Amino acid sequence: MFNLDGYHAVHAHGGVARRPDRSVLAVSGADRAVWLQGLVTNDVLTLAEGESRYAAYLTPQGRMITDMNVVARGNRLLLDVPATLASSLRDRFDALIFAEDVQVTDESGSVLVWTVVGETLVDVIGDALPAEYQSLAEIDLDTFDVIRIERGVPKFLADMNEDTIPLEAGIEDRAISFTKGCYVGQEIIVRVTHRGGGRVARKLVRWHAHDSASVVPMPESPISQATKHIGRVTSAAFSPAMEKVVGLGYVHRDFTDPGTGIEIVWNDAYIMAEVK
Asked: What is the dihedral of CA 47, 49, 54, 55, to 10 degrees?
């Protein structure tokens, strides 16, 4: 449940959120880094001990199967993934191990995930929260989600799903290495980036409702401009700091410029907003 005191504490001094919506897979074995390097979008081969890197795992058609944070920890790579996908991902990865010295285990429940909320959102994986963060205010997932939406950070299974190409969600700067070797789905990403100039049919944008709006639209609420349907809402929340409704949503690429006026419809409410 959203907690206003916790929200204000995090805005003032930073905080930490326990992430029950995320679970951890562990990849071990001598070939773990080379094996994973050929599957995910970012460069995990060069990870130093304790270093974390955000990545995606794609279909051959370039659509997302999951996102993940990959952490080098001792003789394992820890993958922070959506909790509801952890079991199926473990089975999927296991089926991709042939002659390699690689083992994938599901560490759900024994290795935990927190997000440290400071100037950026940083996931921390471990058996316990590191001592350096224990003095920070702890917030629940609902309160964290409001902060995430305020900052325009997309969440897998909310703002991204199995139909999403990473370029549509705008995560390429932090999730994709354009200099590493081959990975699943790379051909599509390269084709769109280099031959298509990075143009995709739709893009995820941040939007802010006008100050007079008080209704928080649900996901899948249609977005339009001048009666023309141009997209849909993926996440929305009321921001106490900004005193307005804010959110994320996909719109046609012709309507992504900051300041573009849009209209969101939820039940009988018409919410006037603009792209940020």
From this structure: 50
Q: How confident is the model at residue 157 (pLDDT cuts 50, 70, 90)?
A: very high
Residue type, 86: A
Nearest to 126 by CA among 32, 210, 26: 26
DSSP letters spanning 215-276: --PPTT-EEEETTEEEEEEEEEEEETTTTEEEEEEEEEGGG-STT-EEEEEETTEEEEEEE-
What is the DSSP code (8-state) at residue 73? E
Quick check: helix, strand or coil at residue 47? coil
Alpha-carbon distances, residue 46 vs 34, 50, 53, 256, 261 (angstroms): 10, 12, 10, 35, 43
Mention every residue, 6+ apart, whose C-beta is less than 8 A from residue 244.
Answer: 208, 209, 210, 211, 213, 238
pTM, two decimals, is 0.95
- Domain 202-275 listed as CATH 2.40.30.110: yes
CATH class of 4-151: alpha beta
Radius of gyration of the chain (CA): 20
Longest dimension (CA), the chain: 61
Residue 55 · residue 46 · CB < 8 Å: no
Residues 49-84 pLDDT 10s = 999 999 999 999 999 999 999 999 999 999 999 999
Give me the residue label for tokens 């051959």: 60
Over residues 89-143, the pLDDT tens digits come to 999 999 999 999 999 999 998 999 999 999 999 999 988 889 899 999 999 999 9
Q: What are the domain boundaries of the chain?
A: 4-151, 202-275
The stretch 211-233 carries a mean pLDDT of 94
**Amino acid (1-letter code) at residue 32:** R
Nearest-angstrom CA–CA distance, 184 and 40:
7
